Every structure is written in C-alpha cells, then in structure tokens.
Amino acid sequence: MAYRRILMITGSSPDVNADYMLNAMVPDAIRICQTEYESLSELENEFLESFGRGASAQLSSLKNMLLLLKRINEDYHNINTLFGNFKDSIASMGTWINDMSRNPLELDYFVISGEEALTSLPKADAGFFAKILHEVRSFIASFTEDYDNIGGTVSVDGQDPVVVWLETGAGLTGSRDNATILKQLIDDMFTAETGITVSTRLVAAGSLLPSVLSGIGPQVCLSRDATSAVNYAFRGAVMNLADEELFPDYADILQNTERYAASAIEPFTFGNCIYAVPEVQNFYMVFYRTDILEELGLNPPNTWDDVYYIIGELQNKQMVFAMPVPVVGAVGSGNLSYAMLLYQHGGQYYTDDRTTTMLTTDAALDAFKEWTQFYTLYNIPNTYDFANRFRTGEVPVGIAPYSSYSTLAVFAPEIQGLWEFSLVPGTIQRDADGNPLYDENGEMVVDHSCACSTSGCIMLSIDSSTEEGRNTISRAWEFMKWWTGEDAQYRFGTEIESLLGPAARYETANLKAMARLPWDKKSMSMIQQQWAHAKAVPQIPGAYYTARNIEFAWKEVINNKTDPNTTFVEYVSKINQEIARKRAEFADKIVEMTKPKKGVTK
Fold first, then answer.
1. pLDDT, average across residues 161-173
2. Predicted TM-score (pTM) of this structure
3. How far apart are CA 35 and CA 50, in angstroms?
C-alpha cells in the first residue's frame, strides 16, 4: 500500500531532484515504512532463533528490504532515488513469502527398523566408489536410454501401440512432469478399460514437421494450435475427423454443444471438414484490483465508455489501464485484441465463402481505428509486463487472458483476495438513430464478444485403404475421444494442479470438465458468461498473413502516427493478394474440402 500511495504522487519514475513533500502528501505511507521495518526486524530475529545463523542465506530478500526501509526511514527524500529498488524489493518479498509458505520437506527415502538392526542400516551418503559407479552407469545410459519415451509400451495381441507425441512447450502437456501424469492416466483409465496401448513421447518443439515429411511421425499429436492444424490439412497431412465413413460417431463429439462451445470447433473447421478435437481454450477477461478501485471510488468497466473514463482517472493518479499488445518475436499474437473490437462492431474477418477478407468494411475500419487510438490518443502503454504491474498497482485494471489467474495466484501472493476478473468491456448496441438499445428487462444491450485461442489434438494422415490402416485409425480415434472427454480432462487438470499448485490451473475446452475444476463460484460464473461471448478467428489458406499484416499496420500507426484507415486499407490489400495466391496453390484441396456432403464422405 505504501508503494502505491507514493506512486500516485511521484509516478513510476520520480524526478530525483524534485521535492514531492511526501511527509505532507502521504504521511501514512511514511508511517507504514517505519512500522514495517520494525515488523520485519522482529521476523528476522524469530527466523534466526528458530533456524540458526546457517539459514541466513534464505533471508536475502528480507535483508534487502530491511536495508531499503532503513534508508527511507532515515530520510524520506531517498525514495526518489530508491523507488525502482523499492518496487523490485516488494516483488522479491512476494516471491520469498510464496517460497517460504511452500517450502517442502525433502527426503530421499526413510527406513523403519528395529533397534537390533541399527548397525546394518544403509549409509546416508554414498561412498567414493559408489558415486563413481553411479556416474559410469549414467554415462552409459545416456547412449541407450530413450528419454523421449514416457514409460515403456509393448505391442499387445499383435497390435502396435497408438503413438502419441507431445512437443515440449506445447501447452500444459508439453513438460515432462505433465507428460508423466498423462501417461499414468492413459495406463490407469484408457488402456485398462479399452485394452488399447499407447506410446507417449515427449519430443522437441518443431519435431512434427520434419517427421511428417520423412514419414516417421506419430498417429496423434496433442496441443496443436488452429493455424498449425489447418495448414497441415491443406497439405493432406491430417485426417478429416468429420469423415462419416471413418468416424461415424464424430457428430457426438464435435457437434455436441454440451461438450464444446461452437467457438472451440470453428477454428479447426474448413468447408465440411474438421481437423482437430479441442483440448484447451483461452480468452480475454478484465482483471482489476478491488482495493484500488474501491479507494478511487471506481467500478469495474462494463463498456468501453467506462474504460475511457477510468483511463483518465487512473492517469490522474499516475496509473494506467492495460490492453494486450503484440509480443516481440511472436508475429500475429496481438490479433485477438483487434478481433475483440471487430466482433463487437458487428464485423467479420472473411466473407462467408472465405475467399477474401471483409476488413475494408466500416465495422472493420472503425474497430482498427478504436484499437490504435488507445495507444496514440489515450497513451496507454504498448509494452508492459501485466503480472508485475498488476501486483504493484501500476496497472490496477487491464485486459488479459483468463489463464493469467494461474500466474497471479502464484506470482503475487501478497495481493491474494484483492483482485477479481469480469467480462471484457462491451460495445453498446444502438439503433439506426444512434440511440442505445434495451432488452425486455430494461437493461442496456452490450456486446461483450471476445476472440478466443484454441489448441487441440490432431490425427496424422493414415492410409484407410487397408484393414490395418482402418484399425489404426479406429484405435487412435478412441484415444482422442477419451483424452478430450470429461473424465480425462478433469483428472488431468486436478492431477497437475495437485502437483504444481494453482499455477497449473488447466484451461480445458471441455465444458463439463471445466465446471468440475476447483474454481470458486463467482470466478466460474464469470468465466462461463464470457465463454458464451467467445468467438473464433477462422482459418483459411494464407490466414497467417492476415494476423501478420494487422500487426504490422498497428505498429506503423502507433510508431509513425499515420492515418489508421489509410494504413489499414493498404495492408488489407496485401492480405487479399496472399489469400488469392494461396487459394490458387491449394485449389484442388479446397474443392475437396468444401464439396457438399452427399451421404458418406469419401
């Protein structure tokens, strides 16, 4: 609180030569620094009494904060030069508190023995030769051990196991701990029930493409983003899961509104084909500090008009509102911000037949202008670390993926209970004369649409002309249905959270599994409400060029202050040219994918 009170006076970068008269402006902040110095000194003494001087290394964050507070208490004018360090020390203390509260008892093993066996107990430390033997064995194993394979799997009844790949870094499944949990669930739930064995392999990121080209890829790959899945589809590398001949029950899975929201299926769909089963779905929500808004007499924003008012109030107090921006090195990552505004304005990315964009319509141009004006006119930051600034209070209100809950729950324990999230700001719906519309209950009609990102599991192309191929497809499909089902998704989510804590809260796309995860009632209600407003960004040939050039146009406007409409139209023309080129390249495949269904899909 002391940091935030001082921040409202000095800003995040105080003038070292200015006298802000903090003793008169924020005397409570000065008093907090004095009382906290005394409290932390007592805490240090208690810690050393309990654990001895040998544990003093664990108190480095605490000692740094004590030194800082001592200098501030000696002369509050030191705050001008120490403010950056003050912020860093607060963040460090939050991490220290979290680490101390979760500090586990580490044991290699324990032995229960009678008194007569005390002389035969194993030594606590290995001897010199035992250590040498262990290192030699480890060295030899490095040449023979398959570290990619998660658990051993052998053929059963002459049938090879279904090969499932997980790429490192690909969602919550892309780590060894989580892959091990997945393998355990497969053995305990799927294989035990169906008799189908699964070989689970954790491979390096980027391994799928070269493996597919060389013909040694898996049958199933997890956690693929929509762009990747559909791009593979245009090249005939993945199976169409809407093929009624090979997947007769696909509608029960992929058209089941109790299992998935429509926004989870759409990004994997092109024409009459569906190329993945959703696993994880994420979308934006508004995060806000309840303590700061209450102090300022503000309410969480419901509409963009509310946002514009809040921006002014926050800036008067040296604080800012935050919107997601493109991330350096991840081209197209800022596309969801524009998509949110586009959908709220009633626009869409492409024509219904997906042959060209609709980004030169009034709705699309108005959305782009509004998006860029947040940075050019309202001067909100275009580079920032949301979690850091949110925990310090510099950004008390901001839009972020709802998965940020996991980050804040672990990263900022000091503000636990002082923040919440709600629906993204919406656009007021108006009639032809510009008057707001109201529903039958007298409530103003507000469009809270937001764009979502979805990842899913794909089945790589398998020859269906042979009995063996059809059998492999059937077993892989059984695995995909099980893995994306309610029970498996719920068990996986609870298992990884029990292992890693709230930081691993799983954003499953399965609606029923999501409802069973350990969210509090209010948070779950907000997520479900926003989920109902989530919309997907369609995938078409050349869609990567759409995201890339929208980002380029945004950067040109905010960096060079060019006219938004003119700049956007120029980049949209480049998008349309690339889409036309890609449609020509994949013309035959597009005809096949968009061919109307007549009975059984061939």
1. 78
2. 0.84
3. 23
